[in-house]
Amino acid sequence: MGWVSDTVDSIKSIKLREALHQVITLGMIVTSALIIWKGLMCITGTESPVVVVLSGSMEPGFQRGDILFLTMSKDPIRSGDIVVFNIDGRDIPIVHRVIKVHEGQDTEDTYYLTKGDNNPTDDRVLYNYNQDWLQKKHIMGRAVGFLPYAGWATIIMSEKPIIKYVLVGALGLLVLTSKE
Which residues cross the membrane (predicted)? Predict the structure, then answer.
């Protein structure tokens, strides 16, 4: 009967190694994604190299769900450039076009006024109280390319959080139960 208990111990050991292998694989996938994101941040010079257009304010140029690729180059931002900016105290960045640039002596003294292509007025109503212009610190990046409609999954998951939890759970379960 000793060989039966040795076989059971051997099977338990194999299952434990398989489970550990699956957990390590999941960790490597997550780590790889983070490394790619950090690499893109270094290459583009922006904290958010990829953003999803969340509203129709830039139609017809960009549709809701388009993915924009951003960079923050040394070139000055000019009127007509499409930028992504963040307002102090707000979490969601905004994608709009620069319509006026007020240049000072230094780049820190340069101010920008933006407007959505599909909006009737400039963005001063979106800025904080008593703020009429954006500064360089508000600009996250300049759009250099886009991928049409590829960001709809992000929009759906942000509007219906249960879908996000089900999808993440299913992916995690798939990784943990796969035999490879």
Answer: 20-37
